[in-house]
Amino acid sequence: MDLIRESLLKKSKASKKDQFGRVLTFSALLLIVIVVVSIFWFVASKGLATFFSNKVNLWDFLSGKNWAPGQTDAHGKPLTGALPMITGSFLVTFLAALIATPFAIGTAVFMTEISPKRGAKILGPVTELLVGIPSVVYGFIGLSVIVPTLRFLFGGSGFGILAGAMVLFVMILPTVTSMTVDTLKSVPRHYRESALALGATRWQTIYKVILRSATPGILTAVVFGMARAFGEALAVQMVIGNASLMPKDLTSPASTLTSILTQGIGNTVMGSLENNVLWSLALILLLMSLVFNIIIRAIAKKGAI
């Protein structure tokens, strides 16, 4: 009886494998959580040192227009105004998304509704190729083509918000396009059949039924592309001009959070004011990525409802 009871209570190989799988997946999940929390803690501790250790006023930091951390104004306050970089980042991001959205929607509609076979055969590989191109290549092309073109058309140096937006537009286009294609494919087929049965033309079906049904997914794709654009560094740095000034127009040299970070982080001493304010810029970037993710989740949840 004892042997029978022992054999019944003994775990089988399948249960041991199942338990091992649960432990493995839980460990991976725990590791990801620890990494994310560690990143937030590290960046926050460095970024907040500007306000707690160096006694920089938060409002002056966010609203100031003069950026020269190693210098002070007439009142002895350090020139740590981050508003030019914050403004430049948002302008470049929104302008790139504004340009990319109609192209992405048009390409996705062609690939899913107009000519699915030809679109999947031609545009699909092209979109995947654009994703794999390194950002430095985009920046070099922008420096060699876009900047001289803008200089010829509008005068000036050619560097600025518009040049950065044009480069980012090409960079985020495949992301927005591929996500929009997946969204349009997820629209139930009977939506199309019902609209056509009621006498709607193909374009009426696309515009009034398919695109409206896919609006939450398209908005998610656009916000995801904006998050990608907001954090881009090297390509933007090569064409925006890297001038820490408030943008006067779209064709004057400007800067973004990422361009100032990549330009200055290697030339400062850890723990100094010059280094801490750069970590504060990094903290803004991190918080904005969190905001973009919250927006994406909110849109996806609304679309699911």
UniProtKB/TrEMBL annotation:
GO terms for cellular component: plasma membrane. The chain crosses the membrane at residues 20-44, 86-110, 122-146, 152-176, 218-240, 277-300. InterPro entries: MetI-like, MetI-like_sf, Phosphate_PstC, Phosphate_Transport_Permease. Its main location: membrane. It is a multi-pass membrane protein. Part of the binding-protein-dependent transport system for phosphate; probably responsible for the translocation of the substrate across the membrane. One of its GO terms (molecular function) is phosphate transmembrane transporter activity. It comes from Weissella bombi. Residues 86-296 form the ABC transmembrane type-1 domain. Belongs to the binding-protein-dependent transport system permease family. CysTW subfamily. The lineage of its organism: Bacteria, Bacillati, Bacillota, Bacilli, Lactobacillales. The keyword Lipid metabolism does not apply. This is Phosphate transport system permease protein. It comes from the Bacteria. Keywords: Cell membrane, Membrane, Phosphate transport, Transmembrane, Transmembrane helix, Transport.
